[in-house]
Structures are given as C-alpha cells and as structure tokens.
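Ticket #4471: structure export looks truncated?
Reporter: QA, pipeline team
Priority: medium

Steps to reproduce: submit the single chain below to the structure queue and open the exported record.
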Amino acid sequence: MRSEPPLRRPDAIVRLGWLDALRGVAAITVALHHASYHYLPDSRRTILAWFDPGAFGVLVFFLVSGYIVPASLERRGSVRRFWTGRVFRIYPLLLAAVAVVVVLHLTGGYELRDGLATDYHPVTVALSHLTMMQDLLGVPSAINVLWTLSYEMAFYLLVVALFSVGWHRRSVATASTLAIGAPALALVLPAGALSARFGEGWVSLAAFLLMAASIGLACARRTAVARAGALLGGVLALTLVMVNGRVDPWQGLAILAVMFTGTVVHRAERGQIRGRTAVGVCVLVMASAAGTGIWRVKGYTDWDTDLGEKRAWALAVVGAFVLFAVGYALRDRHVPRWLAWSGVVSYSAYLLHELLLMGLDLTVGRPKSDQPLYFVPFLVVLLAASWATHRWIEKPGQRLGQALARRIDPPPPPAPEPAPSMAQAPAEDPAPAGNPASAEAPVPAPAPAGDPAPAA
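Actual output as written to the record:
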C-alpha cells in the first residue's frame, strides 16, 4: 500500500509557530500534572478519574514529533546530518539533568526511584540510559519523564530505516498497520519478555551495541552498508517495543501509530496525500488507541478504578487529537510570542520540572492539603530555569552539532544556473505528460524552527 503521489504544489512558506505553541501547551500540562501530586493531593484524584493530563500532554508531543522529525530528515537528505543533529539536540541537556539526579542521590538528598540504585548494576543503568531506551529494556528511568524518550528513539530508528529503503512516504500504510496491530496483538505480545528471559544487564548491553552499530553503519557512505545499518536499527526498535516494553505492547504500538499519524498530517499539508486520507488515518489511529485502552487499561493504585482509568485514557487520546487538529486548523494565524517561546523551551521545561519539584520538596516541603497558588511560583521558576538551560546548554549543543554536521557531511554546492538559451520553445508546445520537465519545480520541505526538539 503506497501513499498517494503529490497532488498539488505546496506553498513555499509554511508557518510552524503553531507547532511551538502545541509543544508549549504540552510541556506545561505535563509539568502541572506532576506538580498536582505535590500541590493538589486531594483534588487530583477527582481529576484523574476523568482525564489524564500527563497522557494528554505526551500524546500531543508525540503528534508534533511525528510531524516534524521525518520532515527534518527528508529536508537534510542525509542520515549522517540527521543523527548528528539528534545527538547534539537531545543529549547535552539529558546528560546534565541525569547528572543532577545522580549528585542529589550521592549527597543523600534524593533516593533513586524504583530501586534503580540497589536492584540494577550501575553499568546496566548507564548503558540503558545512553541508548535512551531504558523503558524498553526493563530499567527504570532516572527521571520519571524519560520514559517517553525511549519511544522517541524507537521512532527515530524506524524513520531512518524507512528512509533508507525509500519507504518513508508510506506513512499512511505505516500508521494504519500499527493502529490495527495494537488491538490485534494485544493478547499475544508479552511485556518485558527479553529482560525476563536474559536479564536487564545482557539485554541493555546488546541493545547498546546494536544501536551503536546501527547508527554507525547507517552513516556509512556505501549505500548497501548504510541501508543494512538502518534496517538493523528499525528491527531493534520494533522488537523492543513489541516484546520488551515496560507498558503493554499494544500501548507501545499505539504510541508509534500516533507519531506516524503526525507524519501523515505533514504529508497532507505538503500535498503528498489527499486530505481526506489523512483524516481517515487520524480517525483510525485515535479510535484504535482510545478503544484498545478502554478494553485493556486497568486501575493500578488503591484509590482509582478500572472505569476511571479507561475514561481518563480515552479522553486524553481524543483530547490530544482534538488539540492537534485545532492547532493545524489555525496554523496560518498569528501565534502569540510568549506561547511560541514556551514551545522553544519545552524540552527544558519537560526535563527540568521534576528536578524542580525534587528541589522544592527538599527546601520548602509539600503542603498537606490542596494549595493551588503554589503552581504560580512553580511555573515562574520553571520557565526561568528553562530559559537558562535552553540558552546555555541546548543552544550551544545545537550549534556544535550543526558545525560538526557540516564538517562530516557538507551540503552539496548549489548547481550553476544554466546559460540563457537563444531559442525559446513555443508556448503552445508543452512538455508531454509524464515528462519530468512538465512538473513544477518542487518546493523544499519547510525547515522546522531550529532543529526539532524531542517530543517529550
């Protein structure tokens, strides 16, 4: 099943401020959701019985990543430049945030979550976090929110694999297959099977080596070698999502389907598929994710119920798609500068908000009852810290990555303009249909504002 061929010439200018706005809303929603455990200990139970703000926020992030990341790879046209940009976009702040947690643990200020310091070998913890796929390797995340980066990395590996074999435009088939596979395989696929069979240490080591080999080979200059490396990464990602995730495999497949749905929307916006096809895929993926959740999600604490969990998940899925649709519909409207800026620093806000909550617990403690006014200073400090880390950690890392990418794989020089011909073809003698000369010159895919941030 192939995506439809281009149907129209896309506009040369595409505004992407709406994507920054969505990222800002998603990051602040997730931050407030986690802060509610500290500052709304009573009311949050009522909220979570109807709606899961955390799931809503990360699903919006996943839709945005799906829209931007494949476009970034296709715009560059180079796997080497893509991976260089990804590494220097994500890892500087990620390593800094994890380092803060480690220091807090070593100084006795914070106990690593889920027995990370006592039940897992330090090498296993380090290797799994270096792959960013610790949530798919049976290892708890040093910071709770890092689990989403595991699916980001799996998505990157799959996108590169599809690009290497020329299937990157088959987004409709990819998203649809994943959406159908999630409920179809829900009763078949096991969770955490590889780690249970071989142990987290060996699985983490194997994943680290295979991922390093995959990226290294995918960056080779020989096409066959690069294709083999990219396919190795795609197989690794799909295998881990399907049989070794912390969450049920259907949920991992649903997350990937949501991300490729963002890609489908991008292709519709660029005129590469029909709009009604994109709408159909969005409805399919949304129905699959929400419906499978209603079927499979269960309460996991002593105070929530199965009905509340199912309802909260389904409404979060629908809400994420509705917000993305609203953002897309308003994409040509002016985005307030403050809202677009919140998206620019969204990666920092996403990683830092749990560190800030740790610090506030250590210094001022948690209130015993609902104190919603605490959200105000929390957000002020979070946004200020996010501005600082974006300026002094993220942006220098991006600049270094861009410089290194130019050295590793310099862009080709612009083609010289042809000399004007003395003879002109008659206007009434157009190029025959099917001749490349009859097509309009393609407009390059729009460059996202800077190197796209990870979804979450």
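Status: closed, not a bug. The export was complete when the record was re-opened. Leaving a note from the reviewer for reference: The chain is about 65% helix and 0% strand.
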